[in-house]
Design goal:
Length: about 80
């Protein structure tokens, strides 16, 4: 799905709240149809999902490893 797209890596796994959410929100303006964000956190970013849903963003979640990864992209 993400082939031929530019990836922005946003690793916030070392930060305490509210920094991860703030950084995610600030980087949403960088997304277009050819760009996605790989958001890496150590826990489930529950508040982020509401922001993404209300903003019209799509996302996929990978929680199969030690980190929680959310791929964020435009619909």
């Amino acid at each position: 799905m993400f082939e031929n797209m530019t990836q922005i890596i946003l690793d916030v796994s070392e930060y305490e709240a509210p920094v991860p959410l703030q950084r995610a929100i600030n980087s949403l303006s960088s997304i277009d149809k050819n760009t996605y964000i790989k958001f890496i956190h150590r826990m489930r970013p529950c508040l982020l999902f509401d922001v993404l849903d209300k903003g019209g963003y799509s996302y996929e979640i990978d929680d199969s490893g030690e980190q929680y990864i959310v791929y964020i992209y435009k619909k």
